[in-house]
Amino acid sequence: MSKPEDTEKKILNKKLKDVEISIPIVYGNISFWLGKKANEYQSHKWTVYVRGATNEDLGVVIKRAVFQLHSSFNNPTRVVESPPFELSEAGWGEFEIAITLYFHSDVCDKPLNLYHHLKLYPEDESGPMSTKKPVVVESYDEIVFPEPSEGFFARVQSHPAVTLPRLPAGFTLPPPVPVEDASKRKRGDTKDHPLSQWFMNFSEADELLQLAAARQQSW
Fold first, then answer.
1. What is the CATH number of the domain that holds 138?
2. Environment class of 146 (CB within 10 Å of its CB; exposed 0-12, middle 13-18, buried 19+)
3. What percent of the chain is predicted at pLDDT more than 70?
């Protein structure tokens, strides 16, 4: 005899065939030249990050992010356990940063590896450097989860960071899981981020968001 909780777990772990969930993300860096405060070891302050493409909270899907910095940094493996997934440092050199994303247990077992080349200097190196205008380098991507579990789907189906597919005919949605009171939850979105004025807009992300909103209304 199986316990009711076991049956419930089996239902929540059941894979949804012919369904995929996608999460539009942006990863990159923003760096500021330190001007008169610059020295030979620290010429720039910079922030590297992974954010929702429309600045939504990625904590609904991502559990933690690990940033692997150059070995010359103290403690080069930096673990960020909650959104926003970012870290700030100062230095003088450009190098490749490996970013590993770990997902919640109902999402995916395998981590995802991203690579970002930290950029400090503007492309036009002949022009004067400014302490006011940063160098911004961002990449757009979509993380796709094919055949999500019912539990994962129910948890994220009304979350703005998540793009849901057209559902197969005859498919009934599992009831959404109630979201905890937003006022009690630590905010993990990047809408009011101090650097948000420098974030780039990705038209694909905005289109996806509009599509998702239209789909929600049509259900």
1. 2.60.40.1970
2. middle
3. 70
